[in-house]
């Protein structure tokens, strides 16, 4: 959903199995008419992995976002918080929102800590843990406002989100700088736009008759131009 530093992959120990856990999409959304969602986690390695999960409220999913205190202690609950995953298995992490039902969109950093289990530890031998790997993967959870409002303005090649929830923008049309090897291939832009932000449609001729613009709110498509 968002191109952010907060959605990062940090390897504490580089190894062939450090990328064992597949956490799926960078962004997970709890819709306005729901109070829960789920995310599938897969162990694609050939060894046992121990995965722990935690959530932190953040001010924004963009680069400038910082960790902030939740408004309620039980604002966002998740289960399980720790999983032992044999090779080739998957598990479901569930998220439950119990926060305020208002017109505000909320963002959470979901951090998955993936630790490998060495042969010594796996066999029950209390040795030094040789061969252990550890990786930290962060994704974003967006909770749409309970009182959601979709509103936007498009003027002269720039679209502004005047509502209170993020949406995905899809633009396609004639390229301003066509590819010499494929000059008739149209250009396409896809990006997410947060509330109270604007963005220009770049690299596409927005005055051309072939220009089309629309937004996606989850699975609902809304034509703009």
Q: Using the coordinates above, name the CATH class of the largest domain.
A: Mainly Beta
Supply Rg. Answer: 21 Å
What's the CATH architecture of the largest domain? Sandwich
Average pLDDT, rounded to a whole number, is 88
- Helix percent band: under 10%
Number of domains: 2
* Overall shape: globular
Biggest sheet, open or closed, and with what strands and sense? 6 strands, mixed
- Could you name the ranges where pLDDT drops below 50 across 5 or more consecutive residues? 3-18, 125-131
Helix segment count? 1
Report the end-to-end length measured between terminal Cα atoms.
22 Å
In CATH, the topology of the largest domain is named Immunoglobulin-like
Question: Considering the protein shown, what is the CATH homologous superfamily of the largest domain?
Answer: Immunoglobulins
Keywords: Chaperone, Fimbrium biogenesis, Signal
Signal peptide: 1-20
Domain EcpB C-terminal: 151-224
Organism: Enterobacter quasihormaechei
Give structural notes.
The chain is mainly β and 225 residues long. It has two domains: 9-143, Sandwich (Immunoglobulin-like), CATH 2.60.40; 152-223. The protein is 2% helix and 44% strand. Strands 1, 3, 5, 7, 9 and 10 form a six-stranded mixed sheet that branches. Strands 2-4-8-6 form a four-stranded antiparallel sheet, with no helix packed on it. The protein is globular and about 60 Å long. Residues 3-18 and 125-131 have low confidence and may be disordered. This is Probable fimbrial chaperone EcpB. Residues 151-224 form the EcpB C-terminal domain. It comes from Enterobacter quasihormaechei. Residues 1-20 form the signal peptide. InterPro entries: EcpB_C, Ig-like_fold, PapD-like_sf.
